[in-house]
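Running this now, will post back.
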Amino acid sequence: MAIFVDEKSKVLIQGITGREGIARTRLMKDYGTNVLAGVTPGRGGQDVYGVPVYDAVEEAVENVGPIDASVIFVPAAAVKNAALEALAAGVKLLVIVPDRVPIYDVLDIAAAAKDAGARFVGPNTLGLLSPGKAVLGMIGGRAERAREWFQPGPVGVSSRSGGMTSAIAYYLSRAGFGLSTIVHVGGDSIVGSSHPEVMELFERDPETKAVAMFGEIGTTQEERVADLIEQKKFTKPLVAFIGGKAAKSGTRFSHAGAIVDGNRGSYESKVRRLREVGVHVVDAVADIPGRVAGLLAGNK
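Update: finished.
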């Protein structure tokens, strides 16, 4: 199994005729993702790498049938309308790639998704990849590289950094560990599926035996993961690395969502809380594969 997406998931790409849409359509198609349609208003009747383009999501659904997931590559100011259009058409998973989406727009999307019983990943995300099954977004860059770097297996990856998402997954793969699903939750302060939501999905996935998490200063995502563990809602081995150790209060670290304000969201508070509940916090990203190896060996 995999979380979010597999080889059977029916996928739509919004903004498919833009530069990013075209490039990532090729990646997803070449990888084997079941991309059925694309949408760009005013471009209906075209095709991108064999994928038919429609003017609206509803029109796409009428022609190709129900859609499970939409990957959104439109300008930030147009994201809200694109997301709401997909949700209204019955799409249950959105991957919102663009950054700089206005916070109030994200809040409106979150409310609409909740009402529709849907989920979204992002904004400001590379997306997600289930090795050997499907990729939504841009992880791997090219299909041949994604197939070479990431093999199927029992380790899940959840990360707040795009670069660290790929790096951790690559290091684990080079160490001989296959991966169940790789998720970049997004770098903004408000995201649709944060670390806690991803951990709950990994908990229910029988294929996932352990999880590697990249966290960083800002927000309370990592502390909320600790709460889940304390409540026995996440019980699998978790190895974590927290970025931003040297950041001081008021400092923004890399992403919009990574900013320390007093003691809230600090490196020290996150590490302390995670260790309190038994999370294996490492001091370097390179230490993750070794710690995962020990945990998986101990579970045999």
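The CA atoms of residues 93 and 119 lie 5 Å apart. More later if anyone needs it.
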